[in-house]
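Weekly modeling sync, notes
Attendees: S.R. (lead), two postdocs, one rotation student

Agenda item 3: backlog of single-chain predictions. S.R. asked that every request posted to the team notebook include the full sequence so nobody has to chase files. The rotation student volunteered to paste the first one in as an example of the format we agreed on. Action items at the bottom.

Example entry:
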Amino acid sequence: MRINREIKAASVRVIDMEGKQLGVISLTDALAEAAKASLDLVEVSPTAVPPVCRIMDYGKYRYQQSKKVQVSKKSQTVIQVKEIRIRPKTEAHDLEVKIKHVIKFLEQHNKVKISMMFRGREIAYTDIGRKIMENIKNTLGDGCVIDQQPKLEGRSMVMILSPKK
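Predicted structure, as returned to the notebook:
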């Protein structure tokens, strides 16, 4: 027989395995009831006056809780942020290939961060980069939601896209 927490009170409110209240009884009587049922006495509410204890199979309870956690983890979806890097001098065909990658990522329900890197004196031609970003946005059309419009951050221009729900 296990006790989940050390129970310090002389009397406790006991709930049996069917959920019926046995009432407020002494700790030794509660332990005897649990032993008679060959189950555990588990303190469920230590702050109540008197503390509330339940007669249950504690190992089975912990197993059921771990299964609930596994099921909730299985049903949740993890959204990743995929990044595509381009430059202002990226050719048209290469840009089409990158756009196909963006579409594939969006179909997999991932967010996409499109980064345009400016090197050296290319930073003076941010308008070219903005035109390329607008071209990408127009090519994708209604297939995605734009979370962040093209924005210059240091030497790179960033646009974030997410899949349509």
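Discussion: group reviewed the output briefly. The beta strands are 11-15, 21-26, 40-45, 52-56, 81-86, 111-117, 144-153, 156-163.
Action items: rotation student to repeat for the remaining queue; S.R. to check formatting next week.
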